[in-house]
């Protein structure tokens, strides 16, 4: 996408002519003028009033003798032209030639001249009007004779400009007696400057000797009667002239808001894309927008906005710092200066506006409803303009009147036409229950119904009934309501259901019960964290015409739409901060959805860029290859096709956890056709915390694991041709299979190297290969991974950069991301996908994982991260680290340590990424006070006893029990047992490497090591015995524990002093027994019932607690070390929020908290 630049103005004007034929059916550039005009009002908090005036497309319907351009293209041109004139020493032609090199400067000069002439003639009469007429007559004659430089003094042009600026500054305001007097004074000052300084001496003398003018001056009648410009056209010209004379901003900086620039840029570029002709509103395809909602935030309350978190940061404070320009524009719009929360509470209307302002910047239902209702506004505006244009002058409208949009929302014809073609249904599954318990969500939904008369809400209504045999039963009804004229819910339809409709997954069931209430031939599925824009809604008719277009041998059944992720800089959860991606698609007409990402968080930037590459480059290619599925909202479905072929949502529990993509499967299997279109975009919110990313990717990976078992994937694999089958495989389950195989390859490689090292074969094979000259075998044994595997997951994103930005910018952007540790994050995400996909393949049972959609940056506690990532990342990373340590201790590499580093560098990067990414990307992760608090919280959680009703977030024991819930089937237990046996390799290999064994390779030595392990377990059991558990002899137990500790230390000292046992052997034995102990724990958990029967479950739990304490200590120690150095925390903040710092945002203030500022 090209950079935002003044050239967009010219491109836009030409696009207006090009695209209006397809938009309105007639060559009417005025229509697009209104499209651009509505953008300004749509984004009213993105622009201030001044920027709206600069960006407004002029009507060009007045009597001015030239084409008027938007003012932002002409800003500062008059000042520059004045400089040219002041320095001019040549002829008039040379001066005009120099000015005309900039076409916008030429337009600005012409408009300034003609506007000044017309305005001056319109506001004065009598002698004053005669002076103005004579003045411009002389100037026009001089211009025609190329003698302007002889007629006027160009050195005084700036003085004339200043007087004219003062005059227009008064005229743009409302008429009062004082202002009329001020205008008279300003005109007389202008007269003096023009007559006595600006004009040549001969003209000056002529005006001074003009008796009629002289008498008027002496009598004080000159310019005494002012005709104030009150008609709309003249007011517009006065305002434009004033802005032309005063605005010095560069066109590239208008508007200043980056989101407004992006939207204008995309809209302008989209006018040059291929899109079908749009039918008139009366002939367009009727459609419905459909949104499922459960219990997410509808509208933020004032208490939610003002409450501080532990760092003293409220949502309102956060948004004021993240969006300073939009906050200032908001205050300007409601007519307030700097206001506090208490000031807003004094005005209910302003309080409500504030709540909506905040909610429109979050992932709320209010934002989604506002965005989708823009479809209705767009259709109303289009219908209104079509009727006026077709009627035009014949209906008595003037040229300016028939394009005036004032009151279009009140037009009965326009409203009726829009309501015939558009319906919006929000399926609020538990709205009835929320109303019964008077939940705030119900009141907020009712408020949305009142503010949007075309909005409909569907919900499940439960009531008590009596069966035919007199028994009490629950009756379920699916109901559709709207707001009546009094703002109360008015029931439209009520359908009795045969039973509880929630049989499978919640979200698809929510959609299925309400789809009967949709209308039209098309249905757009919109999630409740999406947004829309009025300028994009203007193109919905073009999009719907794709259903009638030629896209192969079959008409489209799903239209894919591009997404824009808007949560990169904007939305942070109270408990987490970083973003996620959505990797799924469905079968429908693809639309382009845009992900809002103005990166406060560098990680948010990574994910939005990766997501953008998928919804643009990725889906574009998939649609061309006819293997694009439905990956989630906002695709547009052929409603009739899908409701007669199984609907848009499969809802079987577990197997359809990723319900969206099954709609694509279903459509493709039934010979549908899915396309993708990038000339229209829809906003999309994403989860913005690292923990949220893990939860979401876990859900997605688990869903893909379930897809492997589905009949849909099997049938598609059977019916596709070879090339489509391969493409389909890689873009669905194959992506996760390959991801898992990538990680498994690392494990297989390392276990193979460890086996060769412990058996001694690596040295002998390498020596034999060199002796025989077998260089191929030697090279294979010393293969080096120079590229870290996690980087490969970013390849599509890099290709997208190259296509969209060019090679050099793509390289620069990629290097910047590497400096911000993007490889660490991508490698971490690789582990997330591998873990959850592999677990689903082994055990099944994928489940929906709620991620939350909130605001505000907050530090995540160590215990929270440990609970989430312990089994998915930490255990696996420590296993790889153990393999690498054993390999460096006993392995052989040609070239020594340097070869070992090159051979294992990628594996070490993976270990570090999996262990420390949650803390690297954790705000204030290395701040000393936070570290101390985290340690206290961690120890309290670790040693808190579980029990009935105690959640895993409060107790290690409860969390440990929850972590075993996935092992349910006998097949899963067998597979877990097989996989757990790999840990026995360490003890078996290391025992024979100990010096104390004296190269004895008998099995007796291995058996003796098990005896030692058993003794260690018994000693641990005795050490963990407490007086609470042994109330009979507590003092004796403590005494015995002390003696045992002294005895163990003495025994180890004797072994080292009097035998061949060394300290290195001691550490090697510890590594071996750690791995074997973990194997025993895994087996005990797998066969939990057997272990409980044997009465060993309590011991297993205590040993597991010891392992988790040890793993936590290994991870926590580096964090404590780096927390000692204050500069590390500063450096981390710079990495996390680099782009925010570059834009001058006050992240440091947010992270530090607002309490200190309030106190000071």
From TrEMBL:
**Is Oxidoreductase given among the entry's keywords?**
no
Query: In this entry, which stretches build a coiled coil?
Result: none
What GO molecular function annotations does the UniProt record carry, in alphabetical order?
A: 1,3-beta-D-glucan synthase activity
- The organism's place on the tree of life at top rank: Eukaryota
**GO term, biological process aspect, one:** (1->3)-beta-D-glucan biosynthetic process
Give the record's keywords alphabetically.
Membrane, Transmembrane, Transmembrane helix
Q: What is this protein called?
A: Callose synthase 10
Q: Which source organism?
A: Aegilops tauschii subsp. strangulata
């Amino acid at each position: 996408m090209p950079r935002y630049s003044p050239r967009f103005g010219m491109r836009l004007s030409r696009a207006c002519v090009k695209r209006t034929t397809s938009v309105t059916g007639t060559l009417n550039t005025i229509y697009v003028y209104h499209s651009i005009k509505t953008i300004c009002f749509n984004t009213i908090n993105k622009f201030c009033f001044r920027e709206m005036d600069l960006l407004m497309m002029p009507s060009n319907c007045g009597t001015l003798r030239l084409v008027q351009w938007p003012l932002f293209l002409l800003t500062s041109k008059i000042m520059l032209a004045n400089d040219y004139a002041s320095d001019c020493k040549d002829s008039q032609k040379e001066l005009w030639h120099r000015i005309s090199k900039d076409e916008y400067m030429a337009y600005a000069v012409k408009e300034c001249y003609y506007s000044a002439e017309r305005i001056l003639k319109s506001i004065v009469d009598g002698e004053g009007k005669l002076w103005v007429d004579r003045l411009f007559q002389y100037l026009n004659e001089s211009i025609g004779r190329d003698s302007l430089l002889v007629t006027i003094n160009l050195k005084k042009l700036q003085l004339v400009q200043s007087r004219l600026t003062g005059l227009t500054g008064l005229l743009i305001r409302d008429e009062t007696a004082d202002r009329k007097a001020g205008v008279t004074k300003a005109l007389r000052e202008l007269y003096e400057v023009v007559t006595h300084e600006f004009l040549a001496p001969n003209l000056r003398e002529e005006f001074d000797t003009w008796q009629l003018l002289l008498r008027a001056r002496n009598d004080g009648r000159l310019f005494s009667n002012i005709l104030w410009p009150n008609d709309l056209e003249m007011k517009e010209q006065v305002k434009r002239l004033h802005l032309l004379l005063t605005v010095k901003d560069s066109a590239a900086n208008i508007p200043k808001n980056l989101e407004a620039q992006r939207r204008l840029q995309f809209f302008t570029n989209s006018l040059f894309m291929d899109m079908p002709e749009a039918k008139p509103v009366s002939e367009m395809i009727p459609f419905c927008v459909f949104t499922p909602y459960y219990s997410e935030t509808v509208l933020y309350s004032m208490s939610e906005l003002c409450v501080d978190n532990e760092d003293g940061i409220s949502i309102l404070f956060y948004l004021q710092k993240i969006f300073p320009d939009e906050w200032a524009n908001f205050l300007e719009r409601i007519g307030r200066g700097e206001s506090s929360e208490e000031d807003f509470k004094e005005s209910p209307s302003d309080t409500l506006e504030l709540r909506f302002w905040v909610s429109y910047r979050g992932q709320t239902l209010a934002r989604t409803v506002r965005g989708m209702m823009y479809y209705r506004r767009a259709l109303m505006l289009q219908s209104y303009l079509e009727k006026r244009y077709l009627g035009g002058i014949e209906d008595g409208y003037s040229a300016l009147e028939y394009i005036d949009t004032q009151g279009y929302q009140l037009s009965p014809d326009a409203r009726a036409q829009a309501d015939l073609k558009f319906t919006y249904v929000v399926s609020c599954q538990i709205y009835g229950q929320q109303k019964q318990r008077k939940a705030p969500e119900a009141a907020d939904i009712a408020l949305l119904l009142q503010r949007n008369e075309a909005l409909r809400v569907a919900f499940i209504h439960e009531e008590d009934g009596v069966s035919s045999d007199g028994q009490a039963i629950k009756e379920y009804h699916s109901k559709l309501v709207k707001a009546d004229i009094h703002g109360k819910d008015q029931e439209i339809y009520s359908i009795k259901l045969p039973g509880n409709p929630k049989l499978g997954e919640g979200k698809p069931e929510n959609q299925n019960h309400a789809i009967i209430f949709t209308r039209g031939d098309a249905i757009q599925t919109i999630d409740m964290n999406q947004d829309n824009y009025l300028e994009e809604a203007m193109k919905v008719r073009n999009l719907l015409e794709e259903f009638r277009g030629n896209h192969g041998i079959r008409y489209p059944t799903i239209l894919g739409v591009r997404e824009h992720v808007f949560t990169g800089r904007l939305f942070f959860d109270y408990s987490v901060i970083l973003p996620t991606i959505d990797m799924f698609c469905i079968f429908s007409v693809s639309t382009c959805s845009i992900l809002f990402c103005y990166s406060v968080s560098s990680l948010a930037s990574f994910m939005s860029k990766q997501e953008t590459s998928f919804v643009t480059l990725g889906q574009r290619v998939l649609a061309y290859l006819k293997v694009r599925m439905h990956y989630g909202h906002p695709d547009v479905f052929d409603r009739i096709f899908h409701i007669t072929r199984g609907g848009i949502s499969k809802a079987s529990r577990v197997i359809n956890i990723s319900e969206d993509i099954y709609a694509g499967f279903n459509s493709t299997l039934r010979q549908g056709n899915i396309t993708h279109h990038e000339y229209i975009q829809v906003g999309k919110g994403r989860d913005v915390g690292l923990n949220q990313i893990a939860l979401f990717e876990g859900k997605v990976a688990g869903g893909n694991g379930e897809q492997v078992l589905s009949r849909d994937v099997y049938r598609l694999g059977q019916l596709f041709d070879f090339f489509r089958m391969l493409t389909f495989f890689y873009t669905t389950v194959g992506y996760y299979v390959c991801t898992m195989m990538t990680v498994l390859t690392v494990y297989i490689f390392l276990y193979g190297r460890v086996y060769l090292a412990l058996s001694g074969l690596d040295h002998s094979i390498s020596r034999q290969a060199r002796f025989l000259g077998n260089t191929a075998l030697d090279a294979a044994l010393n293969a080096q991974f120079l590229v870290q595997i996690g980087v490969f997951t970013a390849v599509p994103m890099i290709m997208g950069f190259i296509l969209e930005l060019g090679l050099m910018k793509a390289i620069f952007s990629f290097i910047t991301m590497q400096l911000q540790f993007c490889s660490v994050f991508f490698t971490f995400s690789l582990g997330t996908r591998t873990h959850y996909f592999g677990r689903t393949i082994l055990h099944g049972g994928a489940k929906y994982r709620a991620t939350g959609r909130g605001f505000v940056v907050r530090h995540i506690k160590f215990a929270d991260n440990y609970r989430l990532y312990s089994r998915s990342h930490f255990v696996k990373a420590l296993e790889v680290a153990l393999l690498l340590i054993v390999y460096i201790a006993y392995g052989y590499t040609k070239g020594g340590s340097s070869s070992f580093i090159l051979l294992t560098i990628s594996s070490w990067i993976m270990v570090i990424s999996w262990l420390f990414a949650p803390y690297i990307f954790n705000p204030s992760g290395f701040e000393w006070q936070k570290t101390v608090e985290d340690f206290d919280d961690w120890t309290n959680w670790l040693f808190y006893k579980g029990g009935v009703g105690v959640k895993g977030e409060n107790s290690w024991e409860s969390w440990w029990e929850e972590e075993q819930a996935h092992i349910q089937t006998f097949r899963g237990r067998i597979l877990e047992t097989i996989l757990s046996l790999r840990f026995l390799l360490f003890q078996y290999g290391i025992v024979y490497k100990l010096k104390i064994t004296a190269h004895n390779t008998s099995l007796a030595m291995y058996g003796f090591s098990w005896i030692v392990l058993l003794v260690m377990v018994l000693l641990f059991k005795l050490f963990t015995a407490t007086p609470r558990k042994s109330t009979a002899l507590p003092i004796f137990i403590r005494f015995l524990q002390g003696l045992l500790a002294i005895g163990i230390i003495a025994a180890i000292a004797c072994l080292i002093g009097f035998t061949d046992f060394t300290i290195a052997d001691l550490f090697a034995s510890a590594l071996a027994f750690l791995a074997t102990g973990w194997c025993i724990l895994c087996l005990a958990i797998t066969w939990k019932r057997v272990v409980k029967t044997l009465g060993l479950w309590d011991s297993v739990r205590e040993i597991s607690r010891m392992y988790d304490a040890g793993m936590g200590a290994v991870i926590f120690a580096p964090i404590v070390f780096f927390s000692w150095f204050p500069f590390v925390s500063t450096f981390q903040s710079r990495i996390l929020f680099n782009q925010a710092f570059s834009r001058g945002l006050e992240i440091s203030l947010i992270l530090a908290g607002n309490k200190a500022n309030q106190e000071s």
